[in-house]
Here is the input.
Amino acid sequence: MFQSSDFQRYDESELWIFHDYYFKNIGLKAWDSGAIPFTGATNYSEARKKALLLVENLRLCGLENSDDTIKILEIGAGSGAFAENFLLAFENICLAEDLNFHKRLKYFLTDYSQFTLDELQRKKRLKEFPNIIFQNYDALEDVRSSSLSASIGSFHCILSTYLLDQLPCRVIAKVDNTYKEKYIKLIIPEKYLHNEKLFHEKLLKKSKWIKKIKKVFHYEEIDDEDDIPAEDFEILKTCFRKTKESTIIYSYGAKISLENSFKLLHPKNGLIIASDFNAAARGGVDLYEPCYYGNSLAQPVNFDFLYKSFAKQQKVVLFEDPIRPLHTLIICAENFEHPLRLGITYERVFKQNILLRMLYQFLLEIKQSIHILLIISILYTTYYIFTLYEQNFSAP
Ligand SMILES: C[S@@+](CC[C@H](N)C(=O)[O-])C[C@H]1O[C@@H](n2cnc3c(N)ncnc32)[C@H](O)[C@@H]1O
Here is the structure.
């Protein structure tokens, strides 16, 4: 065995290089083979909720009676499954409500993988939608020098699903009053390090290969040289649990991507809608292992941090799915003049599930859910057997 590197800060480790290599070279196989799960946030009903919210917003902004082109940007579009369902839902809503937004629509479908974009076009997966423009865009790049520079300040809506959890982040623990962060060392067998071809083959052909690479983790104290902006640090401090030890994710990549989106957003009418997995603060010094999909890694997002980062200047709404750890962050443009609403459908789902949500969060909080459910099931089964027994044996 060969130690590929010394300990590196988690977000600077080779894991992220493998992750980028995987997405930039795997193409649609990642989704077609089932390596990357996607239906949770890209299905028709999830896409329809967003389409309804957008239509509601376009009306609110008075765009019903104008000829303006409606511009939508999707970032990290991957297989195009979300775009397909969203565009279908958007058209259905417009037809049902006698609106012409769908006829005035330009949908910029973007990803940082040119390979995936080319394959999507070559295979004509979205051929029923002539209003799609395929473009390469990296969520972390400076928009002024990006392929979207001509569209700065023009999008009515910027969408992403399962993108924010793909962007680099750091894992920070609070122990008493000191702050530490996760470092990682990968132990890669020497044969791969000296044979680039074999290495690349493994990344593209063997699903979850990076999960199997031996890894060693530890926490190191954060010192002055660590470049966490003071403003971010102040917010992060409020995200920990009140326990003696607690760990959180510093989703700085997600924050950069949202800041870039603001520059692209229409300053009066625009909305950002981003759905992803949430990472709540944990008690103890937790290693927060990422999820490995294919040979990519997904590190759920600290929505608490993102919400607090933007709530000072913008109107922000955070929708927590009642059952899944899926969160949807809705942020409006700088000069948005209307009250920011969660959207009729989101609100309905929220209200319908309020009891379920409370119960679920209560069970999560006390971390005893399984035990309690087990006890309830045993009590119920005993009661059921007992009543059956009584019915059978007490009859004359
Ligand atoms: C987990 S997939 C999600 C794909 C799709 N949105 C879905 O929900 O099925 C993440 C996608 O984000 C893209 N991606 C990752 N990092 C990116 C970045 N920095 N900028 C733009 N796209 C990125 C990947 O190429 C991949 O297509």
Notes: The chain has a mean pLDDT of 91.
